[in-house]
Amino acid sequence: MTTSPKIHPTAVVDPGAHLGQDVSIGPFALIESGAVLGDGCRVGAHAVIRRYTRLGARCRVWEHAVLGGEPQDVKFGDYASYLEIGADNIIREGVTIHRSSEKDGRTLVGESNFFMVNCHVAHDCTIGNHVIVANGALLAGYVSVADRAFISGNVVIHQFTRVGTLAMVSGLARISQDCLPYIITEGSPARARALNIIGLRRAGFSLDQIGALKQAFRVLLRSGLRLPEALAQLDASGSPPVQELVAFVRAAKRGFSHGEA
Q: To bridge 131 with a disulfide, which of 89, 111, 113, 155 should be the other Cys (CB 3.0-4.6 Å)?
């Protein structure tokens, strides 16, 4: 059984917008031409879905959120660029997510993420799946956040920075270098402080995997070894999470947050 969209009489939905089945649009919301909303999406009062924006199924967009706005980039011209958001995302009040600043480029958001009140995701960011971005966090352009990362309240992240899988970034942190996967990063300047044990347990990591990551943390950040020596030692590990950590470090272009200044 299909269900037609439910549109409040005060909402403005351009005839060129594409609405899936069982979509709900609240009072005074604005849906521009070319926007695409998947089946079961819910859009709250005064929310704005701009052109070139695509939402997957069952996304919840709360009041005053603005999705697909033009990037805050002085080089941006009046050309087509996109924001693509996957299914089952929760986007709370006042959240802003901008489309790409590159011609035909894309800001990409995966599935089942939770964006809390007043956080900002800038142009050309890439967000994985099951990511949580807490209240007031600010992600600059070209930031990459991997699956199941947790970015706490009022964190600020410099452009082109990466946040690894299951990383946790503590509140008020100032991030200007990559945040290692599986590790808690905190402070200003940011420092890698400890393994994200609770996050690893919740994600179903085995005791052996957690033990291997504990050892890798000590070798990489507490042993005093030079980085090439530490990585060479970790190369011998047969643990896939440790190998992911090693690959992440080797791919770093901005460096990564260390345990000490």
A: 113
